[in-house]
Automatic annotation (TrEMBL):
This is Protein unc-45 homolog B-like. PANTHER family: FI21225P1. GO terms for cellular component: cytoplasm. Its main location: cytoplasm. One of its GO terms (molecular function) is Hsp90 protein binding. TPR repeats lie at residues 14-47. SUPFAM superfamilies: ARM repeat (SSF48371), TPR-like (SSF48452). It is found in: Cytoplasm. Keywords: Cytoplasm, TPR repeat. It comes from Temnothorax curvispinosus.
Amino acid sequence: MQNYFTMRKSVMSAQKWNEKGVDEHEKDNLSEALSHYTNALKLEKKDLEKGLYYRNRAAVYSDLSDYEKVIEDCNSALKLCCNDALYHRCLALKALEKFEEAYRDAETIISSDPNNKAFQRLARRLLKIVQECKENSHTSPKVSEMLDLAFDVNSSEKEREIAMNNLLVLARDETGAEEIFKKEGVSKIVQLVKEEKNEGVICSAIRIVGELCENNFSRTKFVMKHVGLPWCLELMNSTSTERVNASQYCLQAELQQDIINSHDDKHQAELQILRSQLLKMTKEKEREVSMQEVEEMNKL
């Protein structure tokens, strides 16, 4: 029986092995499909057919999420003029987060197949990712540098104030905001505010938290959970107009995102009431601070 199978296997053509591979692949029998395509590749001498078999095997590797093997087989197929392999390689590169290479493949596909809507959409997404990655590569070191300087107690007050202001500017851009957030900027700011004496540094730090919440619910959710509204309310209990304003801005940003993303009408109504109360409280606090400033001036 074994001799019969061995003999039958040896007389099967590469084309037949490929057909068996296609059948098994369609049945989702991936290991069998791989084996059959490999047998086809061992027997095939013609470049065109061999390129096709490499492409077919790459498709199986793709289903197995073995993207390195996908790229390897696609490269072999492309050398043998099987341009269809470019589709599989592009998707494998994307899966491996090699976005720039994937984008180049997508552009090549579109140039030869301009009506391919799917890859046009993919190319647009990849281009956006590539641009963001390039932007991140410039922003990330800047954020790290400013964070190190702003929270370095050995730096001068002026240096730290400038660094914190730079972080505030960076936080107004989504890329910068995300980098500050990823580098645990929120927890660092909360700790800094407890100990900091420089009012300029404190106010910029508070505003940074507000900027991180702006237009981003996931970061706002983190701030609400790990910092909370009481933090802002406590900061508002100050004789500094700037600190009161910074705290108000931070509160507004947090509440605005919570309101926008709340699908519970009752919760939204409660948040709106809280927001109104906070506005009223802020104005009262501002009047109180102004009166204190006037009294201080009169004493002089």
